[in-house]
């Protein structure tokens, strides 16, 4: 069997395991997390995993699918409809999390989109505003409103989903690559701002991962002839990114701040 198909099967087993409350080592026991883009892909896998590890989770998205993720988790989750590119939505999302669960410990700024593909000169101002607005401004707004709430509670962990395309250039995705590169530098700079106040700020940089963004909503498993150019010769699976986010969210990474960790099957190692 192709390694993609095996990886996908393992992903579905892990999803089921999380949904059943599996992996109850309690690495996030007592913590409250807000996860954006929780209706699909990496965000959905992270919401299920964080909840399985004991967190109460606000599942935020603008797709409507955040309700399904929250329903799967049950009482430990709350669905919030929010557009991360709109300050009033993000502010309300954080206020709702604190009002409902009493505190905020973890923000996972994960919502994102790649935008239209093609050479940079063929993109227009609206493309720029959209891609930068969701990916980069969205991460900034999340930090802006979450950090004061975390400071009230004594500290916290912010994780943002950047991309391997934020670490190297990416043909036909200049705006996305610029936005994700911006997320990497935002992460490092905000980490410096709050390092002495017990707020850690890190990013994960996925390689090509089988999610909605990659076509995963059209086909549940990666087509066997669509192998991404990653050294591991297979797609990443959402639970593999969720595992990295969990590590950064948990106290196991207590000495790590200001990093952008590639989780990319070796893509940027070349
Ligand atoms: N899949 C990949 O290959 C890959 C690679 C590198 C980085 N990423 C990043 O991973 C993150 C998660 O994406 P994914 O791969 O799980 O894709 P996905 O499409 O499955 O999930 C993204 C989610 O974000 C939501 N979203 C989009 N715009 C939003 C907005 N303005 N406000 C709120 N929610 C919004 C979507 O509705 C969707 O549910 C994104 O930031 C993406 O850029 C993905």
Brief digest:
The protein is of the alpha/beta class and about 270 residues long. Helices cover about 40% and strands about 15% of the residues.
Explain this structure:
The chain is α/β, with parallel strands linked by helices and 270 residues long. It has one domain (27-269): Rossmann fold, CATH 3.40.50.720. The protein contains seven helices and seven strands, in the order αβαβαβαβαβαβαβ. It has helices at 3-19, 41-52, 66-73, 87-101, 125-152, 174-194, 238-249; strands spanning 32-36, 56-61, 77-81, 106-109, 156-161, 199-206, 260-263. The protein has a seven-stranded parallel sheet, with helices on both faces. Helix 2 crosses helix 7, helix 4 runs parallel beside helix 5 and helix 5 packs parallel to helix 6 (174-194). The longest helix is centred in the middle third of the chain and has 28 residues, at 125-152. It is globular, with a radius of gyration of 17 Å. The two termini are 27 Å apart. The model has no long low-confidence stretch (mean pLDDT 94). Nicotinamide-adenine-dinucleotide binds next to helix 2.
């Amino acid at each position: 069997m192709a390694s993609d198909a095996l990886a996908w099967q393992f992903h579905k087993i892990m999803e089921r395991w999380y949904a059943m409350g599996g992996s109850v080592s309690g690495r996030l026991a007592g913590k409250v997390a807000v996860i954006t883009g929780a209706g699909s892909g990496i965000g959905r896998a992270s919401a299920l995993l964080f909840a399985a590890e004991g967190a109460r989770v606000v599942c935020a998205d603008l797709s409507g699918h955040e309700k399904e993720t929250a329903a799967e988790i049950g009482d430990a989750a709350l669905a919030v409809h929010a557009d991360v590119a709109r300050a009033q939505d993000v502010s309300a999302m954080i206020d709702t999390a604190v009002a409902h669960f009493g505190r905020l410990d973890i923000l996972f700024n994960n919502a994102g989109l790649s935008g239209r593909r093609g050479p940079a000169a063929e993109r227009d101002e609206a493309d720029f505003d959209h891609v930068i607005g969701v990916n980069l401004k969205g991460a900034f707004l999340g930090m802006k409103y979450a950090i004061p709430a975390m400071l009230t509670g004594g500290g916290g962990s912010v994780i943002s989903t950047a991309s391997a395309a934020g670490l190297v250039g990416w043909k036909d995705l200049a705006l996305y690559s610029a936005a994700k590169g911006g997320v990497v530098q935002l992460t490092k700079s905000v980490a410096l701002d709050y390092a002495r106040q017990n707020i850690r700020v890190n990013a994960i940089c996925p390689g090509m991962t089988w999610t909605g963004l990659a076509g995963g909503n059209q086909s549940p498993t990666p087509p066997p002839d669509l192998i991404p150019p990653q050294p591991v010769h297979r797609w990443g699976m959402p639970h593999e990114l969720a595992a990295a986010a969990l590590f950064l969210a948990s106290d196991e990474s207590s000495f790590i701040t200001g990093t952008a960790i590639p989780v990319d099957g070796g893509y940027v190692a070349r």
